[in-house]
Amino acid sequence: MSEAAARAWVDARRDDVLRTLTEYASIPSVSTDPAYAEGIAKAADFLVELLTKSGLEHASVQPTAGHPVVTADWLHAPGQPTLLIYGHYDVQPPDPLEKWHSPPFTPAIRDGRLYARGVSDDKGPVMVAITAIAALLATSGRLPVNLKFLLEGEEEMGSAHLGPFVEAHAAELAADFVLSADGAGWRADLPTVTVASRGLCALEVTVHGAAKDLHSGRHGGSVGNPIQALARLLASLHRDNGAVAVAGFYDRVRTLSNSARAEIAALPFDEAAYLASVGALPGSGEAGWSLLERNWIRPTLEFNGISGGYAGAGGKTVIPASANAKISCRLVPHQDPHEILGLIASHLTAHCPPGVTLDIHRHAGVSQPYAIAEDHRGLVLAQQILQELHGKKVLPVRMGATIPIGEMFARCLGIDTVFFSFATSDEDYHAPNEFFRLSSLWDGIGAWIAYLSRVGEAWR
Amino acid sequence: MSEAAARAWVDARRDDVLRTLTEYASIPSVSTDPAYAEGIAKAADFLVELLTKSGLEHASVQPTAGHPVVTADWLHAPGQPTLLIYGHYDVQPPDPLEKWHSPPFTPAIRDGRLYARGVSDDKGPVMVAITAIAALLATSGRLPVNLKFLLEGEEEMGSAHLGPFVEAHAAELAADFVLSADGAGWRADLPTVTVASRGLCALEVTVHGAAKDLHSGRHGGSVGNPIQALARLLASLHRDNGAVAVAGFYDRVRTLSNSARAEIAALPFDEAAYLASVGALPGSGEAGWSLLERNWIRPTLEFNGISGGYAGAGGKTVIPASANAKISCRLVPHQDPHEILGLIASHLTAHCPPGVTLDIHRHAGVSQPYAIAEDHRGLVLAQQILQELHGKKVLPVRMGATIPIGEMFARCLGIDTVFFSFATSDEDYHAPNEFFRLSSLWDGIGAWIAYLSRVGEAWR
After folding, report:
1. Does residue B315 or residue A206 have the better pLDDT?
2. Which residues of B touch A32 (CB under 8 A)?
3. CA–CA separation, B109 vs A236, rounded Å?
4. Angle at A146 between CA A144 and CA A151, to 5 degrees
5. What is the pLDDT of residues B433-454, one digit of tens each?
6. Contacts of B23 (CB under 8 A, 6+ apart)
7. How confident is the model at residue A402 (pLDDT cuts 50, 70, 90)?
8. Quick one: closest CA in A to B369, which residue?
9. Interval A32-56: pLDDT, tens
10. Could you give the angle at the alpha carbon of A113 between the alpha carbons of A109 and A118, nearest 5°?
11. N or C: which end of chain A has fewer CB within 10 A?
């Protein structure tokens, strides 16, 4: 009956919950850009207040070597399992700003969706978890399980300082497994649980030509053009068939068994419909693999940004002094992010054309690929609750994206991570007009109430 | 004696002259960017007032299909030749703004140089011409020659509407030759006269992938990356030896005779010192040609700007929806700008990778290459006056840059153009911290006084 009471408590307070999420999502907590430092601090403080108000104990902001983490706990259920709840309060940069229909940090509701930067990734899903706990505590005066909270501020920049923090606080953070409010579901129309995610590493390369921008007539033909050199360098990183051309890149990649590939091929997935949904054309990517295979089980090398010279309206006859490209890779099991960065850096250095010089900057945040056993009891419970909610079979799937915490918690605490986020992958969370479905907010709170109420029995 | 009187008149008014130039250079008359429309209008009005105050007649702003031209005349020297004085009042865009040591439209004097956007190209040199005329009129009450002024506002965007204006006003603009206040000297340390300039054409290409920016994990491997496609496209435009790879690009280029190449090789020019002066390395450009040849007699295809995806601090794991490159070519005699644009567009279309689409936008302003006979009497006079000023032989040289007006005046009015600008090519006029030497201002005014005083006799 406590599940029903907690759900009723939430239903009577939907306006309050939505107002709180709106306030939270209005904080510009962009982690990658130092200009948003104030937003990061404000979001952490906001969470401490919210966790405390919700009935969690010892809520506090704790320093790391980067942006701080927010922790809290409730540990008064002896004999019951202990869950470490993970989420993050940082968000992606909002640009290109001109493409937003409403300002990124002024949350707006349209057609049953709340629009704001970070509302799907990960502020909405974290609100789901906290609200479920608040409801259980308010209606029962206690929780059926022990909880610890760990909410970080560097997920969008690779969680570089979370691992050292968890290692240093391993005893305090000890738990039976991690329940993550991050890690969006594969599709809005098909409930799934995630069993694997790709790793990530990133670097940027700057090509330097002359000491300053030069007139393209006066100097054209005389000096190296950094954009020309950069284009040649970037073009050298892929083969004509779309495969990555960096020597050694695939050396540690293990080919999936035919049966595992057959399972992926059997999933209900319409490549043409997917491409149409994102407005893309077929024909790109590594030849010889299906679209889902390219996204789930094959590593990629992507260009995330390029800049150099004049980018304003009209033209400017200039040879720029430099040009820059941002590069990132998604990695599959057994690839090592640091090794891959080294291979790419060597490739770039070896292919640098004459007349220019290179600066290569490896980004600090890397993450390993991750996988969980499909019979993990916490995962099976998540699957059951989603099946109840949606009234259909919930499939285990891999994901193309990276959730660095899976591998990190396994390494630092020796425990698995169950992803139980109510964001879905179509919510534009790394693009303009990010949104979170209000239906996911209410469904998610109900599902978390059910999960926390039943996990004690499931774990037994 | 009138030359000396005019020079003395200027020497007594140096502060006034400098104040006027400072006021003129503070007007942000950027032609390529519509955001500066007010600056364009203000600069034209400023010139009308200055020309009138200097004693020129009929000064007025006249509309074209683009930015207006400023015209004026003084036609009271019967039996004397008529010169059409050309210059421009528009300037290059000032960005990257953060690289300026003082704001681009707040002129500042440091070390005998006036720093401001447009002060070398072409506001300082136009002030030289107007001040010389004002001095002659103030001291003699008349001019030894007939003058017409034509100052345009679209030189930095290719002078697309100047030709039609000149064609439509051919009778009013009729003259013996054009004396241009635009067209910077080759080097500050070596006085020269310019006998040839390269043509110009430009286009930009935008590569479109998905309809919006996408998360590089969720979608990486599934959709085309516009930066990857653009890099491959741009890399395909040059061969490994630095030559342009566009089919037909060199078809109309005539190879210079061995003796003409030997003349260029005999010029006092230190490749290593030049490269050091602009902070560039050797090894770039088309193999098989000297640096001066690559700059003067060989066509180029240069990348002037590239943009796409995330360009802020740190990283952003995004696959951008599009990427853009701005491309321009410098052309040598017999190449046709429109034909070259067509060849490049065909090449890009033919090389477009699967999974993306292209938008190709040809910039309207193109210009033909130009050359003047080395025994043109107006050119020989310019050479003599520069030899007097510098006390050494003044060499005829070609230039890598483009002055579209040479070919245009030949075609529309049937007359040649003598370039007599006192800007020099090291004055960063398409880069941050553009400057004009104050010594060039005073030397130039004196030289223009001499030129206008003697051209009647030279032309006879």
Report:
1. A206
2. 312-316
3. 47
4. 125
5. 999 999 999 999 999 999 999 9
6. B46
7. confident
8. A217
9. 999 999 999 999 999 999 999 999 9
10. 90
11. N
- Test B400 with A310 for CB contact under 8 angstroms: no
Which H helix or E strand runs over B19?
A: helix B14-25
How close B327 gets to chain A, by Cα (Å)? 9
Q: What is the mean pLDDT of residues B20-35?
A: 96
Residues in chain B closer than 8 A to A366 (CB atoms): none
Residue/partner pairs of A53-56 with CB below 8 Å, 24 or more apart: A53/A134, A54/A130, A54/A131, A54/A133, A54/A134, A54/A137, A55/A133, A55/A134, A55/A137, A55/A138, A56/A130, A56/A133, A56/A147, A56/A149
What's the CATH architecture for A2-197+369-459? 3-Layer(aba) Sandwich (3.40)
Pairing of strands A177-180, A82-88: parallel
For the record, the structure tokens of A120 come out as 């799907």
Same topology for domains A2-197+369-459 and A199-256+295-362, yes or no?
A: no
- pLDDT band at A190; cut points 50, 70, 90: confident
Residues A97-109 have pLDDT tens digits of: 999 999 999 999 9
Q: How far is B357 from chain A (nearest CA, A)?
A: 9
ipTM over 0.90: no
Where does B200-262+287-362 sit in CATH, by number? 3.30.70.360
**B302 closest CB neighbour out of A158, A211, A220:** A220
Alpha carbon distances (Å) from A372 to A150, A195, A375, A377, A418 = 20, 5, 9, 11, 8
Q: Which fold has domain A199-256+295-362?
A: Alpha-Beta Plaits (3.30.70)
pLDDT for position B120: 97
Lowest-confidence region among A68-82, A210-224, B374-388, B436-450: A210-224
Q: Contact A308/A320 with Cβ under 8 angstroms? A: yes
CB contact (8 A) between residue A281 and residue B355:
yes
Name the residue among B405, B403, B406, B385 with its Cα closest to residue B394: B385
Q: How is chain A split into domains, by residue range?
A: 2-197+369-459, 199-256+295-362
pLDDT tier for residue A131 given thresholds of 50, 70 and 90: very high
